[in-house]
Amino acid sequence: MDKLIITGGARLDGEIRISGAKNAALPILAATLLADGPVTVGNLPHLHDITTMIELFGRMGIEPVIDEKLAVEIDPRTIKTLVAPYELVKTMRASILVLGPMVARFGKAEVALPGGCAIGSRPVDLHIRGLEAMGAKIEVEGGYIKAEAPEGGLRGAHFFFDTVSVTGTENIMMAAALAKGRSVLQNAAREPEVVDLANFINAMGGNVQGAGTDTITIDGVERLHSANYRVMPDRIETGTYLVAAAITGGRVKVKDTDPTILEAVLEKLREAGADVTTGADWIALDMHGRKAKAVNLRTAPYPAFPTDMQAQFISLNAVAEGTGAVIETIFENRFMHVYEMHRMGAQIQVEGNTAIVTGVDTLKGAPVMATDLRASASLVLSALVAEGDTLIDRIYHIDRGYECIEEKLQMLGAKIRRVPG
Ligand code: UD1
């Protein structure tokens, strides 16, 4: 298992490019199954989760063709089996995203139930109930969700999400794109990745309106055709590199991104004392060598502060001036990074869903273990300012969500290297 060794203390300074968004690429790849011809998806990030999705397609008999620019062409007509097996689903919960498209397009699907995961119980009841509302018959048997469309195909439905769910909204939206009649999704997720997926469905000839608001209306169409689509930039990768510069008192310009999709994060960075400027597709952050001021924050569905940036801000607070309270409202058990950061000398107290973080003068390098994707990002950030060396184990979690993290950080002047283990 590879490990990262980071020697803290370098003040970051430089420019990097932001990759395509993992959380937009995954639903968009799943939605290619809806088309009746080949579809090309570009700006895919080079990440383990994307490879897993492509491997899943391979298992279903579809052979994606990857060109030199890392665009993937998928021809869903070559599908042979409508099963998403447990070995793949258990490594990536987002595999559940193929459920809606398969039932809508092929009338049938068997997708392994993802089960628990490190950051909480994360059920998929809403995905199932949404499809049932459209007339699908669903049974859970032998650890698999077995779904079948009614005779004549799925029917449009009104569905109210009692919890805002990103992949839940996406799954039902994809199914509704080929259902008969109109579907209205209420209390839908408003995340920019949901909007990107809606734009992709519309690029294939679909009719989705209202994405980005809490009510999405989908008029089902007979067929969706070939298309060529470019995935949006990754707002969480963007935010993570901004925090990386801020935590070291340094500066960074992130390019090929979109400042309008992470306003809550930029607001908190400004509150922490960062000088943030933006252009059409870039964001620049400068701390002018200063230490950050601790900030209070509360995670909630978009447009509020994203849970996927919570761990990174705990790191920022850990070396900031003052004390900040971080409240996690989306996932239970999403503070595992805190216990690893204690090993580096951080002063953080967790009570229920709140972490009270008191900034310390210095963190100290230590061997630590990554527990999930964003938790591992926070360990990298902490290591960048810690005295001495930090050895981060289990970095496969990082590779699920950050493209070439060591190269990008090296370009900014960080002392980081990967050691095969
Ligand atoms: C997506 C993102 C993930 C992000 C999360 C919240 C992808 C691939 N992943 O995950 O990075 O952290 O949104 O912004 O886009 N819930 C239910 N029933 C369901 C589904 C969800 O109760 O059927 C609950 C969950 O347990 C959780 C909350 O809803 O408490 C939000 O989860 P959800 O938005 O579904 O997260 P994901 O879509 O899995």
How do the helices and strands line up, and which of them pair or pack?
Blueprint: E1 3-7, E2 13-17, H1 22-31, E3 39-42, H2 48-59, E4 65-66, E5 72-74, E6 83-84, H3 86-89, H4 99-106, E7 108-112, H5 125-133, E8 137-141, E9 144-148, E10 158-160, H6 166-177, E11 182-186, H7 192-203, E12 207-209, E13 215-219, E14 227-230, H8 235-247, E15 251-255, H9 263-271, E16 275-278, E17 282-286, E18 297-298, H10 310-318, E19 323-327, H11 336-342, E20 347-351, E21 354-358, E22 367-369, H12 373-385, E23 389-393, H13 396-399, H14 405-411, E24 415-419
Parallel strand pairs: 2-15, 3-14, 6-7, 10-11, 18-19, 22-23
Antiparallel strand pairs: 1-23, 1-24, 3-5, 4-5, 7-9, 8-9, 11-13, 12-13, 15-17, 16-17, 19-21, 20-21
Helix pairs in contact: 1-2, 1-7, 4-6, 5-6, 6-7, 8-10, 8-12, 10-12, 11-12
The structure holds uridine-diphosphate-N-acetylglucosamine (UD1).
